[in-house]
Sequence to fold (222 residues):
Amino acid sequence: MPDRSSDRQLMVASQIAPRGVADARVLDAMRSVPREEFVPPAQRADAYADHPLPIGSGQTISQPYIVAMMLEAAEIAPEDRVLEIGAGSGYAAAVASRLAASVCAVERIGDLARAAAGRLARLGYGNVEVRHDDGTGGWPGGGSFDVILVAAAGPEIPAPLLAQLAPGGRLVMPVGPRGEAQRLTRIRRTPEGDRHEDLGAVVFVPLIGAAGYADDGGSAPG
Fold:
């Protein structure tokens, strides 16, 4: 496979930095992860395009800018434990792994979870663990996490995820109706209580699960 490091440099220079992502660690991480490895072979020519790409099973790999923007919003420190909900192809988990001590990623679709786990292992991202499960339930038995990233939109932030957010932690998730514009929300856990911040309009695939949307298009029972 040809070296596409120049494409990664151009992606950061033309798509990400000009839109306001300024965290040097995030930009370096985006430059380091070979995005072409995380898309189907038929999509590799467009791996660094400025839009989402299909990865199978009705799911997508997010636009590079959105990945970078969410990671910057999460303010990941080198010692942090990160929980990602909606692992997809494993790309965002790979980028987050360059910023954090460890990443636990949950994917509800078995084929995607198995492919992501194999891909991440093959590429040497040893501090990422992938689990096939209902991501709206968090990572049972995993303790608390400094950062929680949710790559799908739910009607509200699932209570199990809030329960696993550590003191001082940050949770970043799109909230809103499926198939329409949603609001990217950041929650900061402070001694005075959880602080909610609106980071702007986004459109994500729906968060399916017991504490999200149902497969039939409605909301899952709470």
